[in-house]
Amino acid sequence: MPEEKDILVVDDEPIIRDILVRKLTSSGYRPVAVENAFEALDKMREKTFPVILSDIMMPGIDGIELLKKVRSGYPDTAVVMITAVSNANAAIEALKEGASDYLIKPFNLEEIVMSIANALEKRRLILENRGYQEHLEELVRVQTAEIRGLLAIEQQKTFQLNKALDEIQVTYNTTLEALSTALDYRDNVTEGHSQRVVKYSIEIGKALGLKDYDLEVLARGTLLHDIGKIGVPDSILRKPAILTSEEWGEMRKHVEYGYRMLQGIPFLKDASSIVLHHQERYDGAGYPQGLKRDEIVIGARIFAIVDTYDSMTTDRPYRKALTDKDAREEILLGRNSQFDPVVVDTFFKIPEQKWSTIKEDVAGSKYNNSIFRSTDKTAVNEKDPVPLKLL
Ligand SMILES: [Fe+2]
Predict the structure, then answer these.
(1) Separation of CA 275 and ligand 1 centre (Å)
(2) What is the pLDDT of residue 194?
């Protein structure tokens, strides 16, 4: 017994309808017979027919037209066409329009039953395949939603992690600046010295094409260059008279003290090379190792120039500041001896206005303007943290 039994028979000849209905009924189907396409469409609106068996030659709407309407309005209904021998072309057209099969009159009744069974089987496979496709699409939709959900959670985690890192970074940098300011006070250097040398160094570093991380290392190394003076006694560091050679020997150790202090701190390890070598000279006459040229890290070569420039252009207890012009001449004199010529040339390429702007900025900030924060997007806002810009 077929599972799907409702077959719509459409034929304008009563005798054919009777034969077909009887045969289909005896084969286990539940045929409904109508005499034209209009009635067929009415019946189809009332119930679902998995298969229509339709004549081609009919008055009014012919079988081909009916086929087209069924294909567009009821795409899951299979249509088997019946045609006269003389109308073979119409049968071919029917197949082109999507008929499942066609039978030529006079037909063999067993052939009709077989054709309907085939049409039903083909329809069942199509529906099953579509169901499988829909299931797959649903599966993909569900999995995509799950993946999106997981991604959103990951993004949230990354956001929170970055925020925490930014906050740690701010804490690190604030601590470094406080330490450096304390050192400046103890060392009696001119107010704002550390801030200026960091900013000058960054200008030169950028002009030399250093990338973000190297600029960070440069800023930290420059800021902490004299951190080792913590280990130098006040009696030497603050001595109002000229140091003896023994005292100088002690003073010179500050570069190694500083280096050793920073070595144990992972995020300052790279900066420690600048601290160790900030008193080296390009010609090898500096200390502690008498390194020359490229043996000296670039950060220390940059620092040598900006430190000299800042010392000369600010008042000292024992002398007034030199003019900018005099300071520049001195730096030019040190080209190739005290200083790296490439860095000197880079220094001179930067507009003088830059240096005076930095001096004014630092003087105006009175240590409140963090050198580790840019002027545009700096502070970490609790609600909406921006990536910390170090320089
Ligand atoms: Fe120093």
Answers:
(1) 8
(2) 85
